[in-house]
């Protein structure tokens, strides 16, 4: 299965649309969002995709975010998500605290750890854990990007949002 990975959209609606186009064109089976949607209006465009996510440190109205997730049949797990996909145990944590991120990666409990927060692309193995940060979908002053994870090969592809 191909999983779409996204983080740090920060209310950038046009980049969100570009990211969702990538996910739909590539027919991802699941989208994992590592937080910092910021506003609840960022959730409805995910409708029709299998979305699971966590909160980031800049997410505002969490009650309304939860409601918007529920409206489209998606799952928001609070600050931490553990899920299993095709035999892989995947953790999703925004990455607000570097010590927690490192502990999750070094624990040996997860095959994959998806993070955000730093706005920098990461694809590295730490112990047995593949650590992935798709970069920032917002882009800020740098490159806007998402990532794709193939659950069979554990290969990661970064896609720049042009």
Describe this structure in words.
There is one protein chain. With 162 residues, this protein is an alpha/beta fold. It has one domain: Purple Acid Phosphatase, chain A, domain 2 (4-Layer Sandwich). It has helices at residues 13-25, 62-71, 98-106; strands at residues 2-6, 30-33, 51-53, 75-76, 80-85, 88-93, 112-114, 121-126, 129-134, 145-150, 156-160. The protein has a 6-stranded mixed β-sheet, with helices on one face. It has a 5-stranded mixed β-sheet with strand order 5-6-7-9-8, with helices on one face. Helix 1 links the parallel strand 1 and strand 2. The longest helix is centred in the first third of the chain and has 13 residues, at 13-25. The two termini are 25 Å apart. The model has no long low-confidence stretch (mean pLDDT 97).
Could you name the key traits of this structure?
single chain; 162 residues; alpha/beta; Purple Acid Phosphatase, chain A, domain 2; six-stranded mixed sheet; five-stranded mixed sheet
In short:
The chain has 3 helices and 11 strands. The protein has helices at residues 13-25, 62-71, 98-106; strands at 2-6, 30-33, 51-53, 75-76, 80-85, 88-93, 112-114, 121-126, 129-134, 145-150, 156-160. The strands form 2 sheets. It has a 6-stranded mixed β-sheet, covered by helices on one side. Strands 5-6-7-9-8 form a 5-stranded mixed β-sheet, with helices on one face.
Please report the first level of CATH classification, the CATH class: Alpha Beta
Number of strands: 11
Helix-strand topology string: EHEEHEEEHEEEEE
* Termini gap: 25 Å
Helix proportion range: 10-25%
Q: At the fourth CATH level, what is the homologous superfamily? A: Metallo-dependent phosphatases
| CATH topology (level 3) name | Purple Acid Phosphatase, chain A, domain 2
Q: Estimate what percentage of residues fall within beta strands.
A: 25-35%
State the shape: globular
């Amino acid at each position: 299965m191909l999983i779409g990975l996204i983080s740090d959209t920060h209310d950038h609606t046009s980049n969100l649309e570009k990211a969702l186009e990538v996910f739909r064109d590539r027919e991802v089976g699941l989208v994992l969002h590592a937080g910092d949607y910021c506003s609840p209006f960022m959730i409805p465009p995910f409708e029709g995709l299998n979305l699971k996510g966590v909160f980031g440190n800049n997410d505002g109205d969490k009650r309304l975010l939860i409601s918007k997730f529920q409206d489209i049949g998606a799952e928001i797990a609070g600050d931490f998500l553990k899920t299993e996909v095709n035999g892989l145990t995947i953790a999703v944590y925004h990455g607000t605290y570097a010590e927690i991120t490192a502990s999750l990666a070094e624990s040996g409990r997860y095959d994959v750890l998806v993070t955000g927060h730093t706005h920098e692309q990461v694809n590295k193995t730490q112990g047995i854990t593949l650590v992935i940060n798709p970069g920032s979908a917002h882009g800020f002053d740098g490159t806007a990007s998402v990532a794709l994870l193939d659950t069979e090969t554990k290969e990661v592809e970064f896609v720049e949002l042009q």
